[in-house]
Amino acid sequence: MKCRCLWALLLGLLFVAPAQAGELTIGVLSFQPKPVAARTWSELEAYLNRLEPQLNVRILPLAQDELETAISERQIDFVFTNPAQYIRFRTLYGLSAPLVTLVRSNGIRSFYSFGGTIFARADNASVNCLEDLAGKRVAIAFDSAFGAAQVQQYELFLAGLPLVQPDHYVVTGLPHDKMVLAVLEGRADVGFARAGTIERMAAAGTIDPAQLKVIHLQQFIDYPVMVSTHLYPEWPLASLRHVPSEQKKWLIAALLKVELPVSSGSVFALKGFQPPADYSSTEQLMRDLRVAPFDELPEMRIADVWQTYRGTLVLSGMLFGVVSLLGIYLYFSRRQLKLERQRLDNVLHGTSAGTWEWNVQTGETRFNERWAEMIGYALDDLAPISIQTWSDLVHPDDLKHAELALKRHFSGDSPVYECEFRLRHRDGHWVWVLDRGKVLSRTEEGQPLMMFGTHQDISERKLSELEKKRFDRIFDQSVNEIYLFDADTLRFLQANRAALDNLGYSEQELRQMTPLDIKPEYDLASFKQAIQPLVEGRADKVVFETVHQRKNGLSYPAEIHLQLVEIDNEAIYVAIVLDVAQRKKAEQSLRVALKELQRSNRDLEQFAYIASHDLREPLRMVSSYNRLLADRYGDRLDEDARDFLAYSLDGAQRMQQLINDLLAYSRLTTQGKAFEQLSLTMVVEEAQKNLQLLIEETGAAISCEAPVEVEGDRVQLIQLFQNLIGNSLKFHREGIVPAIRISATADSEAPSMVRVAVSDNGIGFDPSQAEEVFAMFKRLHDREQYAGSGIGLALCKRIVENHGGSIWCDPTPEIGTTFYLTLPVAVNRHRCSD
């Protein structure tokens, strides 16, 4: 309502009839030489005369005494002066209420308020806060200077500190530069000046601002200069009593339309005017400081008051009644407003929404505590808060998107602002928020002014959307067929692309069908029987094979993996179907190949067994007759003949050992016995008994720390450890007593297995040959140096594999070797397989 009234008033002013011919004189308070001051106001004077050529408008810069004389003698029509002088002249001479307020600019932003600065030399360590001003010499223009004395004294008053006394003043007069120079030259400890003086002198190159420090520095959003006090409205324009209302309206309209050029280097240049500000803060300052005309209290009797203010008192009584009624109305309105606010707070609390307010023109921003909590902060942690605070927290990839949405709303293309973006959480991760807001007020030029809105955490929703997107991608791109169908009607709800392509139906066609339409082997009863375990909760999943029939009538074998799930309180079957036609062909080919391989292996193993068995008898005869020759005719043979006979005997023995090893290896592939529960310690002890002579011969020390029971073939396991221990005894280092340690630990990768380690301190071998040692007939050393057939470790590998385990080794040359193997723990019964 207030906004509409103000616009109506301004429109009325803009169409005021031109003033009548004559003169209009504006007196302006000035502390500069008159030629300099005249140049300051000349452009405004010329503008007013161009606007109304018949009216001779003059702007007269006047000193303080001259201005007061001109007012008292009605030599001028209007007055431009500082706020304190205006309050004084209004009280003494009955000036009008402020008509307009001066607007200044720094070339970038407009300002309609000002303050004062308290400063000292930067190297003066004795002055750092208001309390330090006590007893200091203070440079002021004069004691009634509003911006260079009174506003600074009022800060001391508000802080409860003693005011600077006149005997501590260093009065310099104007301009304000003099107070700055007095401090820099050491004639004063502290200076009081209008805010902007230091910046103006620094821009002109008069001073180095680093030589000064500002005391009691205040923080005002977008205020361009350093200030130590509260801000007060700029100079007002008021009229004398004799000025007709038409002239007032014309001048107000003219001044509100003017916009003077401002250079970019200015600090506080004249820019234009705005509707009148509230000068009550200035009057309160003057009353609190007892500044003239509020420095004396007049004596007045009740009768005098009644005689003088009878009409006012009667009107006041009536107004009191009205105000009382308004107060009652306001009380209930505020109570209702409080309830509405409480409801709003409850809604915001229930939705966990953060709120924000933004002055689009100044950048001043307010957030509530929930807004900060959403990203891991307390509100104080983000101080000072501005729109830049928000910009710094938005994800760089989302900022342009948000700014574009704001521009659309500012321009009116969208009725509300709405955008989703990420904010950086205090711990570094990103929080998704839904930002909604609306411009609720605009400037006179139609630019957005105040905007209000909310932030809502939508991270969970975004996560759900991402998961759904991932599911949809997996669902659509899966090479397996996926079907969803209703648990009650059995009608298909959805199928992926692989299912539609393989069956040949469209999605619309499939939605009218049930699984029975593509499974010719099933009717309703048999299908319900197949899924009964899911319905009764006896199984989480059923798997079965069937045949699917395509739209063209062709069929293909399918493996069905079916589950019953609940989605949004609705029971749905999910079927993953594998087209196993190729697998069936491969399985058939594999069965044929396996059967042929098994037949071939049996033939080869039988051949090896028969060949080895049939070779033993002739070889035994060769060995026997060679020994007879050696025994009966050895003394008749020369040395070469005896060597030849020895070679023949050695070859026969090695051949005998090789045949025995081959027969043993053959038995491992052809014989299978039921596993039994065996003590690993007992198995190792049996193996040691078979090697007793070799152990005593080498003096070996063997320890077994394997208190575990395994399942296996007793004979094969004894053979396994006999070969491993015998291997360590054979390949011991010369002059070093063999030390062999057998230990067992749980296998972390396979809980049903035990890991056994057989370590020795023998000669070791190159780690690059760790795989080769398990090959048939593989020898790493010369036969003359170490005897053997090269089958022992191959036998070990076969025995371990027959028990479902694995074997490997970790050798180190000249240090030793550790053989590792895994065996089944004694829990279940197994059968030794081929």
TrEMBL record:
Keywords: Kinase, Membrane, Phosphoprotein, Signal, Transferase, Transmembrane, Transmembrane helix. Residues 417-470 form the PAC domain. One of its GO terms (molecular function) is phosphorelay sensor kinase activity. It holds the Pfam family HisKA. The keyword Ion transport does not apply. Its EC number is 2.7.13.3. This is histidine kinase.
